[in-house]
Design a protein that fits this description.
Strand order of the largest sheet: 4-1-5
Largest sheet: 3 strands, antiparallel
Number of helices: 2
Number of strands: 5
Radius of gyration: 26 Å
Length: about 80
């Protein structure tokens, strides 16, 4: 088996009409992988490492008290007192 990532959507023109989606990784036979790679529809994938980076949620309360600059200013003012 060989892993490939399709670089474009493709529907196989046969009875089954198997569909491949761009950006998705598929396990294919060596011959199948070679076929799609040689035609420029897919690229070989050696190891799949998936990294998920989650952005922190931002909640706006509509006040300047929750902005970093306002929080920093309040902290500095409290230290001076």
């Amino acid at each position: 088996m060989a892993r490939v990532r399709f670089i474009e959507d493709y529907v196989v023109k046969d009875r089954e009409g198997r569909q491949f989606k761009a950006g998705q990784i598929y396990d294919l036979s060596e011959d199948g992988a070679r076929h799609f790679i040689s035609r420029g529809r897919a690229v070989a994938v050696e190891d799949v490492v998936e990294e998920v980076v989650e952005e922190p949620a931002v909640v706006s309360t509509g006040t300047s008290a929750t902005t970093p600059a306002a929080t920093l200013a309040k902290g500095k003012a409290a230290v001076k007192k």
